[in-house]
Amino acid sequence: MSSAAEQEAVQESTGKAVEGRSGVVAAHGAPPVWPGAPMPLGARFRVGPDGVAGTNFALWAGGAESVDVCLFDERGHETRCPLTELTHEIWHGFVPGVRPGTRYGYRVHGRWDPWTGARWNAAKLLLDPYARAVDGTFTLPAEVYGHVRDWPQQQVADTVRDDRDSAPFVPKGVVVHDDDDWAEDRRPKTPWADSVIYELHVRGFTKLHPDIPPELRGTYAGLAHPAAVGHLKRLGVTAVELLPVHQFAHEDHLLSRGLHNYWGYNSIGYFAPHADYSASGTAGQQVGEFKRMVHALHDAGIEVILDVVYNHTAEAGELGPMLSLRGIDNRGYYRLQADARRYADYTGCGNTLHVVQPQVLRLITDSLRYWVTEMGVDGFRFDLAAALARSMHDVDMLSPFLAVIAQDPVLRRVKLIAEPWDVGNGGYQVGAFPPLWTEWNDRYRDAVRDFWRGALPDVRDLGYRLTGSSDLYAWGGRRPYASVNFVTAHDGFTLRDLVSYEQKHNEANGEGNRDGTHDNRAWNGGAEGETDDPGVNALRRRQLRNLLTTLLLSTGVPMLVAGDEMGRTQGGNNNAYCQDNEVSWLDWSLLDQPEWRGLTELTARVLSLRHTHPVLRRRAFFSGRAQAPDGLRDLAWFTREGREMTEQDWYAPAATLGLYLSGRDIPGRDARGEQVTDDSFLTVLHAGHEPTGFTLPGPPWAAAYELVLDTSLEDQSAAPGSPHPGGSTLTVPGRAVLLLRVRA
User: Fold this and answer.
1) Catalytic residue among 158, 163, 307, 383
2) Is 419 a known active-site residue?
3) Which pTM does this prediction carry?
4) Contact 709/719 with Cβ under 8 angstroms?
5) Active-site residue among 419, 502, 634, 710?
6) 624-743 CATH, one of 3.40.50.11030, 1.10.260.40, 2.60.120.280, 2.60.40.1180
């Protein structure tokens, strides 16, 4: 513990102790606090004893000595109400007269002993982990740190307590009245196999949209606007995956450079919609606005999936701010090292939530159920999910977190997507998550990128990736839709930048271009960045069509990134997490340019084909075996000579592949019990620069084919309908995907 002399010096340098602060109403001047109830956790407005309306406050703070709930009026004056009831480590009380819209926080009293992980500091106003709404912005001045942030000896700074009051500098929770009725809401309930995910940022998607009123741009209401929903409908996506919308804070190192955390992977309020995305207000109005957005998307048949960050919080490591959990019970919420001053960091963000602890599991699952049952969302994508699946140290697929999710009657029914890795030892777990879970499949991303840039040593991996990744997921009842296929994501190059840059250009982030991955697997077509060369630009647009078409025709669940369908660029920045500006916002004027509007139309067309033809969205893996006496199989691979690929062919590099999908042998039945049948298709992928001949397989595969899609064409309306006999040789243009339908 820091010496008495150190503490006295801190008192002198940081001002008077909290108890002497003006504007604070002492406990004897506070309203009465009735016993209330320990459940549910959080602040819940209700009718109490004798019909008196008020709010019940309940906070888990296992090792605390006492807890005050602090109420703030419109002028910021604080009234402290001690919670004297303690039930199973939950401090609780009912405060009559506290109504929706009231701002509040907690002060939690206890020992200051960082060497044992105890970091209680009642001078710091703490955000309720269960707050349904948050009013205000985290700006992170020195007063919001539990320790003296600017202590001269930084190696021990986290052990020196800061006794300045943080209340004037931190956002407050808001009491919210749960009054929305979901009885009229109709969830789309799109089956996994039929799903197409569109990853977007609430702010960036609508910030520059010309048909959305300026006051709604960048907000939940903006995303609910018919102009935004209409674009999603025209594309044919079935679900939006929203980058984090839980209340988050900006990191100190960004604020010091005049930047902000744009992506939002720095959560601090797991129940509260991020207030900055609200057009209607932040005194609880953001809750209703979010719900209305979900209603609007559901009415359009579009599901809402949230990207959630339960692996760490915005409080960072031992030198981070004290905003919520650290001051409530540091040892109870976070994984600590053997040296309890330090945090176990499996996330690269300074801390890791201790998900093995029952109260942390409760916090996460209560949050998830809240967003499903009261906010209407349809699923979740879990950031760094391997960190959540760790037991004490190692990733464990029988961990408490995964076990709780599997048996929960609400959560096991929604869409669950894992980012199946973290930054700790043994953290890469692609293909390892249990049934119920789907996964971001980065092996799909890498194989497809490498094929189209001519860098695959052989085509074994590509074959698996295009057909659902059975090598990763054909176990334990998992299906092809366990693979969420993507070529780009928010983290990395946009699709246009992937074909325009080979090196990252992140100078605007202020980190000397050291941030962001070096492994881009990109090819610029012969010039780095934007160019006036018409040949290079035409090649890049063709490569965009190839990548998009490959993604949307592959077995599994495709994920598009907002703007890739219209040629959005970030100027080569592959880590634009702190660019809340035109670098990250969608430029809707691209749709006024024919070359980019054509890319959008191609995306919609291929998605329409996918929705129409069940053979392109199979619910079971291919067998590769003959299902009938004629020898026709559900899946076959062909070389450009028109012969079936041998094992030797798979171990050799190849620029041309033919993939035959039989619509006659689709396993499963429709809702009426009838056998599902469809057209059969041949997809030819040619990554070579020069045209090549491809011999079309004859009987039993097909007597003739008709061309449906040719990505070498800028104008896709000229492609369909051309007949080609089986056994004939078709000229495939350089760098193109051809989709041919078997003629009946």
Assistant:
1) 383
2) yes
3) 0.94
4) yes
5) 419
6) 2.60.40.1180
